[in-house]
Amino acid sequence: MAEVRKRRSAAERLWARLTPGAPDECWVWPGYKNPAGYGKIGVVLGVDDTGKYRVTSTYTHRVAYESRVGQIRDGYVLDHLCRNTSCCNPAHLQPVTQGTNLLRAPTSLPVINAAKTHCPQGHAYDHENTYIGTAGTRFCRRCDRDKKRSRRSSNRLPILDGAWSRHYRACVDCGTTETRHHAKGLCHNCHQRARKGRATAS
Predict the structure, then answer these.
(1) What is the CA radius of gyration of the chain?
(2) For range 190-202, the mean pLDDT
(3) Which of 39, 58, 74, 164 has the fewest CB atoms lying closer than 10 Å?
(4) Are 60 and 40 in contact (CB under 8 A)?
């Protein structure tokens, strides 16, 4: 009978391929790396009903940290202090929250946006002109006012003959401003004539 090979853990296979260097050096994973430069290694989850292994993959720096230091707390990720994503040296890894990890990355969008001092229209992000949304995003008060003013202007019907009230705008049918304006853009008389015409047609 053929000898059954012992299934090695991910940590055993990692240290079989990775040779640790000096404590202050980066221990670069020599195997597969994803497009972001993080090392990946296969993990066997078990055997299914057909006898085939169920395999997934995990990051090599996480395997190295958990095998040498201990488990990573739930909700925490490992930050590469050396900024070398393929490094597996536990001394170069620090458990932090995802928010802290993003703020430490110099090329992350939160860091880039936080460094901006003006909005896209050139208005300063100062105390008077800035408000913070529920998601923590900065907004320009002046741009918000201009946007609301433009929206109100585009929806407003023209006012003719010096009519000042929003109820006395020019009728879209006869053009008069002497009678109360209806919601559909008609004056009261034109609106009544339209109703009678629809009733007669039906």
Answers:
(1) 34
(2) 76
(3) 74
(4) yes
